[in-house]
Design brief:
164 residues, extended
Length: 164
């Protein structure tokens, strides 16, 4: 393989990892700025101070924020995604349980979307600057400009409400 391509791939991978690190720091800092106490939320308003202190110690909330982040980052590098505070389930197991459905949807989306996109591209090129090209270009521009959840609502309305 060309050294330029290898260098480009290495740069993209490094940039992707740096971006993941930056996003994780931003999300962690954002959650630290949120009002409220995790231990209080889990135990409720009637929790005793001793119970709150014990839960904070058990969850590691008695440590400084930077230490908790470093511990979490070390766990990530070892494949341990941690435990969800809301239901105390392993996050890795929860993700792997859903990964199958996600990969299934991604595969079938690609099977349908790629040939359809190629066909639309060929039609748009064949009739360049004429009405088929303009309709395809306008429709695709509109589709990629709308948020996915809005398109989801439209599809739910169309298929569930209108067509039962």
């Amino acid at each position: 393989m060309n050294t330029f391509v290898i260098k480009l791939i290495a740069q993209r991978l490094a940039l992707g990892l740096l971006l993941l690190l930056a996003v994780s720091v931003l999300i962690f800092v954002g959650t630290q700025l949120l009002p409220g106490d995790v231990a209080q939320s889990i135990l409720g308003q009637s929790a005793t101070p001793d119970a709150l202190e014990n839960l904070r110690r058990e969850l590691g909330l008695d440590q400084p924020a930077w230490a908790r982040y470093i511990d979490w980052l070390g766990g990530i590098l070892q494949g341990d995604l941690g435990t969800a505070l809301s239901n105390r389930q392993d996050i890795g197991e929860s993700l792997w349980g859903r990964a199958g459905n996600t990969l299934f949807l991604a595969f079938w989306t690609a099977v349908v979307a790629v040939p359809f996109a190629i066909l639309l591209g060929l039609v748009a090129v064949r009739y360049q600057n004429r009405w088929p090209d303009r309709i395809i270009s306008g429709t695709t521009l509109t589709a990629i400009s709308l948020p996915e959840f809005f398109i989801g609502y439209l599809l739910i309305y169309l298929f569930a409400v209108k067509f039962n």
